[in-house]
Amino acid sequence: MPSYILLLHRNAQSMSDLSPEAMGQLLKDFNTWTAKMRAEGRYVGSDRLTEAVKTVTAKGGQFAVTDGPYAESKEIVGGYYGITAKDFAEACEVAKGYPMLKHGGRVEVRQIFEMPS
Amino acid sequence: MPNFILFLHEHQGQFDDRSQDEMMRIIQEYGAWATKMREAKRFVGGEKLTDDTGKVLRPRTGRIVVTDGPYAESKEIVGGFFTITAKDYDEACEIATDCPHLKYGGRVEVRQIHQL
Hints:
heterodimer, A: alpha+beta, B: 116 residues, four-stranded antiparallel β-sheet, two-stranded antiparallel ribbon, 2 helices, 6 strands, flat
């Protein structure tokens, strides 16, 4: 079965803007979502990321490290889930459970390349 | 020691004009870098993503809309990622400068994983 990564995009401010009650509810929603994936046997792993972002680029043999998020957007990847699904359509169905969709977030669904053995 | 994820950003189609042999050699170069991370006991994981641009879900007027990625405003995609351990952001960025991805015009986003 193919593997997919769900990249969880959200506004960098969107979690710190929540009230303690809303934050508590959000964490519960994340746990419920994770438990459902586990029960379906499709959970591979997940991580939450801290809000600091650094970007490393190379130009003309020089490396530059800059702070993110990028100027044009305050959107960051707040975390990700690795799951298995039979195809993109099924992976997208799972992604609809991302609790931050209610708070302006979005999910990028990407398939993991299977290396030829 | 904290873990960091390195998101390997690239232009969509960045490797399209490479021959299959060249592509094999480039993939091996990334593999060699992963081996180096393993030997340094820094390797946690890593995956290449498929070359299609994936799907994006976002809310719109009470329902969830699924579209093809990447987002309209950019032709940049995440081509893959590595997860490594490092003592802090400085060390993680220093390690990232050595990643073959930068040689091929990509950029590396360095993010610390939240320790629960």
